[in-house]
Design a protein that fits this description.
The structure is a homodimer. Chain A is of the alpha/beta class and about 375 residues long. Helix content of chain A is about 40%, strand content about 15%. The structure holds a DNA duplex (30 and 30 nucleotides).
Chain lengths: ~375, ~375
DNA sequence: AGTGTGCCCGTAAACGTTTCCAATCCGTGC
DNA sequence: GCACGGATTGGAAACGTTTACGGGCACACT
């Protein structure tokens, strides 16, 4: 039924060992025999059995990707970056998602054990201490936004603190004295860092911190909507809102519109992540730009570095990289002059990007 | 180094056959020995080698997913549905994307051969005749929106024709005499069907068809932007636009805003897909609702049906299912009275959905 | 006591590769 | 003519499971 390496060997008049060497170019094979073997393989439509291959070679050619969710622009773009880089290196992607609880993550990780050569894990909701023992020790792992103090794993971290600080500092530079923050989920690492950045910016500007200005949220648009409503009820009313991610900013924008509040005239607004829709909300959203796709690609790159034969078991310094989050000024913060100018240089790779119209948007504005 | 079934057998004082039977519950094992074996396995932290297992059992526990892209709300939601259903059935997902050209698809398919137990393929850009020979014959395949006339594969198809027809008919019911369409890519099956629906609606309403009203596009927001610009240059100017997908509608909306054209007063607009952002554009977008997540879940369901042991090689009638695309009226089409009402019953599963705020939106409007 | 019947369990043969090691071939230098 | 060495090739042992087959054993029945 299925054609094996033996069939190829028989047809080409050689042994299976030679077939293996010829097809993988893993040993010396005379040019002429190699051609004969390749021809036989093609004629028989031979495709090596990957199970057998990885049984003996202990490599599967797959990378595992564990994310809290697949939905939304952020993850969508992230996985796109991961996929592109993996494909370029000949790896397949084993994707698993919808995991927040530690137990789910553990189950997913167990399911992947032995099936993947490396792992990209993003688990902002679980603490380092509880995540660590679940991670496999026999394959390289890259942690996204879960910095481990002990440096036992590769980590790749967005500069949540710095980005948030910069965004809030920008809002404050407009003279706002009461800037509210729509916080991310409790115990979420990204959320905590962004909150820290918010507080730092306030402190640096000498603007007093007020507990009531820190509104709870959970990164969903819905919570952003409710958060903005809460802000509007406050007395005196804040004049600016920093949403800890763009999705909440969208929700807030929606609430402000429903309440008849003009943005940015009556309320300035800023977000975080710079997902592509930020360019075509009304008004376009000031936010912290994160090179999401590059983030995914870089994660795979780090994995690939650890996977070069020889770097395997040898303990080496675990890279800890940080990717910047930089302010991008659009109209929602009320910057005069932001309309005509180009807030940041446009990454050439973004131009003509599928499904995105932001270059057009920014030019047109 | 790695612990095998032999280690477990030795520790439990039984043979490997018994260990296998006990752990898989695949044969009679005395209760007491089973407990001993399970304990040994747990103590040793034994995890079966999946390569060896699938080498002998000829099953990998993985489903392949081949999509043209991973970006954008549509695919994001689709893969979410696929992932949920696969996870529920104990399958892992091997994901591959960014394939439009036939050669890329063929390469991706070859790479997956033997690694997956089943395949979900969405390839709107390649014709049935060229796609068919690339598909594996030894594992079940579900085709998304690629209906094959010969019924050689399971197919799951969105009613593009019917949905487009309904949307355009609705626009026409407002009395519009010149309705432009922003078309999808050439040779894209979905795009062609939606165009067909547009033409049918015109014919049924007795509104004359005009070639110049069919504007080329490619499903990206950018092409929607340009398409709307083109529409605005026409003389006499059309009074309604049907964008063949929501992304293009968003682009069009953006162009209309930049041109100072009020929607829906000066130009009615409708889209297709009902991705979640349609609820919080300004104005909210009238579109054709497709249960995207359910679409993905159903695809996995069909695969699972074909994968129950026994249904394997036996040739059976290949199911050909169609999922409806139904009109959902929001404000962009200019319906009076659409503001207060609830256009369609809200699917309970959508409530409180992560990253979506549309229930709030629709209630609040 | 002999025999049939079920339940448990062990032996060993697959599954399809890769790779170590030895054998063969062939030209070269002495 | 012969030893030698490098380039090719083949044989066979892994890799870690699942599973067909058959053996042992306890028990009930004749």
């Amino acid at each position: 039924m299925t054609v094996t390496i033996w069939d190829v060997a028989r047809r080409a008049g050689v042994s299976v060992a030679t077939v293996s060497r010829a097809l993988n170019r893993s040993g010396p094979v005379r040019e002429e025999t190699r051609r004969r073997i390749e021809e036989a393989a093609r004629e028989l439509n031979y495709v090596p059995n990957s199970a057998a291959r990885s049984l003996i070679s202990r490599r599967t050619g797959m990378l595992g990707v564990l994310l809290p969710d697949l939905f939304g622009e952020f993850f969508s773009e992230l996985i796109r970056g991961i996929d592109g880089a993996a494909q370029g290196r000949g790896y397949h992607l084993l994707v698993s998602s919808s995991h927040d609880a530690a137990s789910e993550i553990e189950a997913a990780l167990r399911g992947m054990r032995g099936r993947v050569d490396g792992l990209v894990v993003m688990a902002p909701m679980v603490e380092a201490a509880v995540l660590k023992p679940m991670l496999p020790r026999n394959v390289p792992v890259v942690l996204l936004n879960s910095p481990f103090a002990d440096g036992a794993f590769d980590t790749l971290t967005v500069d949540n603190y710095g980005g948030a600080r910069e965004v809030v500092a920008h809002l404050l530079s407009h003279g706002h004295q009461r800037v509210a923050i729509l916080k991310g989920p409790e115990r979420n690492h990204d959320a905590e860092e962004r909150l820290r950045g918010y507080r730092a910016a306030l402190a640096e500007a000498g603007v007093p911190w007020r507990e009531e200005l820190e509104i709870p949220g959970d990164f969903t648009g819905e919570s952003g909507y409710r958060g903005a409503e809460a802000v509007l009820r406050m007395e005196p009313r804040p004049t600016a809102i920093f949403a800890a991610n763009d999705a909440m900013a969208f929700g807030a924008l929606s609430a402000l519109r429903d309440a008849g509040i003009a943005v940015p005239e009556e309320m300035a607004l800023a977000g975080f992540d710079d997902v592509s829709s930020t360019r075509y909300t009304i008004p376009p959203l000031t936010t912290a730009h994160v090179a999401i796709r590059e983030l995914g690609a870089r994660a795979v790159g780090m994995l690939a570095d650890a996977l070069v034969p020889g770097a395997g078991a040898r303990p080496r310094p675990r890279p800890r990289e940080t990717v910047p989050a930089t302010l991008v000024v659009r109209r929602s913060c009320g910057c005069t002059g932001a309309e005509g100018g180009r807030p940041r240089p446009i990454d050439p790779s973004e131009r003509g990007e599928r499904g995105s119209i932001h270059t057009l948007q920014e030019d047109a504005v």
